[in-house]
Design a protein that fits this description.
The chain has 192 residues and is mainly alpha-helical. Helices cover 53% and strands 5% of the residues.
């Protein structure tokens, strides 16, 4: 199997255990997995270079938006929320945030989760950036568990630190070790 330029590998349904290693060989050394691209394509897994995955997401966006608008036509969700469901960067913590602020369950069988690191936190923040109408509902999320209950009152502090420490976080650049340390401290206090 030779590395191919411009390749995105999609996996539909159950995949063999070596799917990821074969996809990495085919897509090259900079290949990553992207659950958002997979979701938009109706696949279970998507692998490729960040640039190729971005190109594919752009091509899939119109169909994903149309599908979400049809599926959510009578849901009472804002256009911003429908767009996030279709094209937003999603993880279990941002889906928990969405579920508890809108009343629309998108966590499925996974249940509720809190952001575990700055990458998770960035997806939650991108949701609130894309759907500013949900910011005022943030206190509802404290009911999701002790970690969220500890996190919500310190949300602004955590976001300010992340912005200061990693100003390019929206583009996926930089690191935020102080933000991560503060998150761990907040979660440790929630366990006491």
């Amino acid at each position: 199997m030779r590395e191919q330029e411009g390749v995105v590998v999609l996996g539909f349904g159950p995949q063999p255990i070596d799917f990821i290693s074969k996809a990495a060989k085919l897509c090259g050394k900079t290949a990553v997995m992207c659950p958002d691209t997979a979701r938009m394509a109706g696949a279970n897994l998507a692998a490729g270079t960040p640039a190729e995955l971005a190109k594919l997401r752009e091509r899939l966006e119109a169909g994903a938006v149309l599908e979400a608008k049809v599926a959510q036509a009578d849901s009472g969700l804002s256009q911003n929320a429908i767009m996030w469901l279709a094209t937003g960067e999603r993880g279990t913590s941002s889906e928990t945030l969405f579920t508890l602020t809108t009343g629309h369950d998108c966590t499925g069988d996974w249940g509720y989760s809190h952001p575990h690191d700055p990458d998770d936190l960035s997806r939650c923040r991108k949701l609130l950036d894309q759907c500013p109408e949900l910011v005022s509902c943030l206190p509802r999320v404290a009911a999701a568990g002790p970690e969220w209950a500890a996190l919500v009152p310190r949300w602004d502090e955590l976001c300010a630190l992340m912005d200061e420490e990693s100003p390019d976080w929206r583009e996926g650049r930089g690191s935020a070790p102080k933000t991560y340390a503060l998150m761990k401290s907040i979660f440790a206090s929630a366990q006491q």
